[in-house]
């Protein structure tokens, strides 16, 4: 009996694999369409559905400080615009004035530099001529007995005469420039007086 039991235990495992080969069956493979159709959608399952709650955007309330700052800014806007306008106007006027006066300033600076260089290295005939011009000024003051006009005209005329004798070229150029300036000033004065006279006429005012 023991031997027959042992033989059954040994024969069953050996016989079962062979019997499995004899069993026939069909296995159906699911296609791609079947897989896509049969797969459940997570949104349709009650376990994964989430209620769509409406989102409300809460508006931030404006505080007292913000209102005060806004009112101050609004009340200061006219003054700020006025200050900006006046500042830009002043800057434009300063720029125009500097542009107008720049040639004269540059000429004055150049004249001072030339005079300094001339005095540092004067020509040999400078001191005698300067002495003669100074003596003529003193002589003019001595001869100008009387009013203030004579005291102004006599020394100036004698100094100009002495300078013209020592420096004829410079005197000629200076006289030409003085003549042009006097002519320009006289023309401007004449135009101004004509305009003033025309405005005062009763026919023109009507």
UniProtKB/TrEMBL annotation:
What Gene Ontology cellular component terms go with this record?
MICOS complex
Sorted alphabetically, which InterPro entries does this protein's record hold? Answer: MIC26/MIC27 (IPR019166), MIC26/MIC27_animal (IPR033182)
Question: Where does this protein reside within or beyond the cell?
Answer: Mitochondrion inner membrane; Mitochondrion membrane
The yes or no answer to whether the keyword tRNA processing is present is no
Q: Which GO terms describe its biological process?
A: cristae formation
The UniProt entry, under Pfam families, shows: ApoO
Q: Where is the signal peptide?
A: 1-25
Keywords, A to Z, come to: Membrane, Mitochondrion, Mitochondrion inner membrane, Signal, Transmembrane, Transmembrane helix
Q: What domain of life does the native source organism fall in?
A: Eukaryota
Q: What's the subunit arrangement here? A: Component of the mitochondrial contact site and cristae organizing system (MICOS) complex.
The record's function comment reads: Component of the MICOS complex, a large protein complex of the mitochondrial inner membrane that plays crucial roles in the maintenance of crista junctions, inner membrane architecture, and formation of contact sites to the outer membrane.
Q: Which family does it belong to?
A: Belongs to the apolipoprotein O/MICOS complex subunit Mic27 family.
Under which name does UniProt file this protein?
Answer: MICOS complex subunit
Q: Could you tell me which species this protein originates from?
A: Silurus meridionalis (Southern catfish)
